[in-house]
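Re: the pair you flagged

First of the two:
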Amino acid sequence: MLGEVDLDTAAEFERQLLATLHTAEPTIVIDLSELGFLGVAGLEVLDDARAWSKHTHEMYLVTGTQGVDHVIAASGMSACFDTFANLDDALREVAKRHGHG
């Protein structure tokens, strides 16, 4: 995702995330590092996706920016997701957990 996820863009974010969940491998890394803003509507989409996929997918978040990281932490969602500052760290952790690193 690029830009912002707010009330105006949350539906598109949800559409993209659901499409990914339906076609993706069991492990998904959601890269939010290009977001300048993550609003409540975006948090709700992430929480819904987590609930929909909790028995079928492992989800990891790349928060990237301090603003997105703060929103995830302040909402309490950092307890629901493994979060990483960058994509490389997330991919290394996925590989380690799946015996590839």
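Second of the two:
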Amino acid sequence: MSKITTKILDQDAAAGLAPLISAHAQERKRGAPRQPDLYYAETLLNDRTAEVLGAFRGDEMAAFATFFDLPETVSGKRVGHVDVLFVGQDFRNNGITKAMIEALVDLGQERNWLELQWNSPSGSQQEKIAQVSGISSTANVRVSVGIHEDFTKVK
């Protein structure tokens, strides 16, 4: 089995990202399968506020996460905010979700984020967050990567 690698995606990744966005939309909305939209993938990758992290198994893109690096009003620091994390059907249950969360936490440590916020992870994603962070899988999802108390710090 190939190693899982992650990286921030650039414009060149649009062709690999488009089918995953389509699969995510199909899974969320049901109905007829959506066609991969290269233009939308390019637009997302060029967005001035969003960033996209990709996970690869070998040369094939297996997952993506759309996230934001935002100011935190009270502390004057920054926070990461995950909008979507999607793993392609053929790549699930292979450690990719955990690798993506670990990559986001590492990115947060590099950028000195106060915390990594995520409004609505799935149940399996919540479990992976708990594994990575050491906090309860039923906790409100705010994985601390910065200056919070010891019981919420990512180790």
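The domain at 2-131 is CATH 3.40.630.30 (Aminopeptidase).

-B.
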